[in-house]
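Translate structure to sequence.
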């Protein structure tokens, strides 16, 4: 058996080459993932491609990339050795079935827990389970895109793990986070640098939580534990977390043996909230403590596609023909409730009766504020320009940004609905949603809006206020009457048609003018800030 060759020196030039090789490999994986997610979306929409074979093909491509990267690193280190490295042939790619087993965790947490990969592949499952039984349904685009990305990352890791284990030179290895904002746990493990040996590869896979931090395995034949710039940064972050806990316990370095790694991770999440994917920001007091306490009951959703109009505005249409429907004229409530439900608030849209003036545009947008307690005004389409000219402006916002879109119809009246910036076929797209009623085509709304009659306001990075609660005044210095309800929660009374149409709300002309004078001093939306997910965390831009 060959002697281990893992104590070679690493000069400045070699470190630079290793750094560049790692960046190139990560970029290649990212590009492969981008291509895969785009292709599987197209394949699902067309419905004429074998999706399992498509996923398997990309898994094999990832294994090939990992093999090439391994050979590149081995060659760089071989130039530092006074002795030739023994030949190591490893051209065989990792079987996509093995990758599938890794990604789906085998048959764990099922009625067939205990089955091994070898038993399944050899047909020794008494229940007749096969590897094909592990394939998830690939009919949802978002889930399929996440799955193919996980398969690519896992295939690369398994290939590296296998090579390190079989290489006669017995290299050390390090965990390297590929995500721009990895989690604290992965940073802790990556902070060790090249401290893992080939005997530890058997435990490598268990430390991954579905690959969400895009961690990879990087081998090393050098004596140094930290060769990459990011490794030094991760070690610095972990050491800072340990110091924070030790100082908090008041006993300096002697506190370290008593310090739980979970406490250190918690400290890291607080200290480096902008650098960690699970960082915890020290937030200002909530703008909606009463709303949160009473209605924030559910986990946030991920996408508007998970919402339905029945969940947002279930009472629409329950009126006799010819009667004014207060639940069919409440779009300024529906758009807000859709955004609230996305964030985990268990509410539905309240009605707007025929004598209710809360539909005035600067009134209902006052319910939302930025983190520092400021408000925003609508960004209007230029006069006489086509209403859909705002689409160009919206596409300058980051993927994940969400909006209220307002339009004045060419015929009469107007409407307000929701929108989100999404990626479709490799380019930014503005996807429109209308949750007031079923069977609507909001993507075509702007063609029905008169020239200069459209406007938008960004809301993903804004926060609801308690002004949405019944009995609260609008967020103006001008003293306005308390408006009718904006939202209805479980246990609240849903006004009947007659009750809603009998209610009156209308400020005086002077009050409207004074509140408008406040509104025109508010700031406009900006595309500069990162998009904020419904769970309140910033989105990491996709490379």
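Result:
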């Amino acid at each position: 058996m060959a002697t281990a060759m893992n104590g070679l020196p690493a000069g400045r030039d070699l470190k630079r080459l290793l750094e560049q090789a790692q960046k190139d490999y990560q970029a290649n994986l990212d590009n492969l993932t981008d291509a895969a997610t785009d292709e599987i979306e197209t394949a699902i929409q067309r419905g004429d491609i074998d999706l399992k074979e498509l996923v398997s093909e990309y898994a094999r491509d990832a294994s090939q990339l990992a093999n090439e990267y391994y050979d590149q690193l081995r060659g760089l280190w071989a130039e530092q050795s006074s002795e030739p490295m023994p030949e190591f042939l490893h051209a065989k790619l990792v079987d996509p079935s093995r990758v599938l087993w890794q990604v789906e965790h085998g048959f764990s947490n099922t009625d067939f827990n205990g089955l091994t990969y070898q038993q399944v592949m050899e047909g020794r499952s008494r229940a007749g389970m096969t590897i094909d039984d592990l394939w998830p349904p690939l009919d949802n685009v978002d889930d399929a895109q996440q799955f193919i990305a996980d398969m690519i990352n896992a295939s690369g890791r398994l290939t590296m793990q296998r090579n390190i284990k079989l290489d006669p030179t017995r290299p050390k290895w390090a965990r390297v986070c590929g995500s721009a904002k990895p989690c604290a746990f992965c940073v802790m493990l990556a902070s060790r640098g090249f401290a893992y040996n080939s005997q530890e590869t058997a435990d490598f896979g268990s430390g991954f939580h579905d690959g969400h931090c895009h961690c990879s395995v990087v081998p090393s034949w050098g004596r140094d534990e930290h060769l990459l710039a990011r490794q030094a940064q991760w070690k610095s972050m972990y050491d800072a977390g340990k110091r924070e806990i030790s100082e908090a316990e008041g006993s300096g370095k002697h506190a370290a043996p008593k310090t739980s790694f979970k406490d250190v991770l918690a400290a890291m999440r607080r200290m480096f909230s902008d650098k960690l994917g699970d960082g915890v920001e020290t937030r200002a007091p909530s703008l909606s403590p009463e709303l949160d306490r009473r209605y924030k009951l559910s986990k946030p959703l991920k996408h508007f596609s998970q919402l339905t109009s029945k969940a947002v505005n279930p009472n629409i249409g329950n009126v006799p023909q010819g009667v004014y429907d207060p639940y069919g004229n409440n779009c300024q409530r529906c758009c807000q409730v859709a955004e609230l439900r996305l964030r985990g608030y268990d509410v539905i849209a309240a009605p707007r009766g025929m004598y209710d003036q809360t539909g005035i545009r600067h009134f209902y947008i006052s319910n939302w504020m930025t983190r520092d307690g400021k408000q925003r005004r609508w960004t209007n389409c230029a006069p006489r320009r086509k209403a859909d000219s705002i689409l160009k402006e919206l596409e300058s916002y980051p993927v994940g940004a969400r909006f209220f879109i307002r339009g004045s119809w060419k015929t009469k009246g107007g409407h307000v609905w929701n929108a989100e910036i999404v990626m479709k076929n490799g380019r930014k797209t503005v996807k429109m949603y209308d949750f007031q009623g079923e069977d609507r085509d909001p993507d075509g709304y702007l063609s029905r809006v008169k020239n200069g009659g459209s406007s938008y306001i960004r809301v993903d990075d804004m926060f609801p206020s308690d002004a949405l609660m019944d009995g609260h005044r609008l967020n103006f210095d001008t003293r306005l009457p308390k408006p009718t309800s904006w939202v209805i929660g479980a246990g609240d009374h849903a006004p009947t048609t007659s009750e809603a149409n009998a209610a009156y709300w209308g400020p005086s002309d002077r009050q409207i003018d004074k509140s408008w004078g406040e509104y025109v001093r508010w700031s406009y939306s900006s595309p500069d800030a990162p998009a904020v997910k419904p769970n309140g965390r910033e989105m990491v831009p996709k490379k």
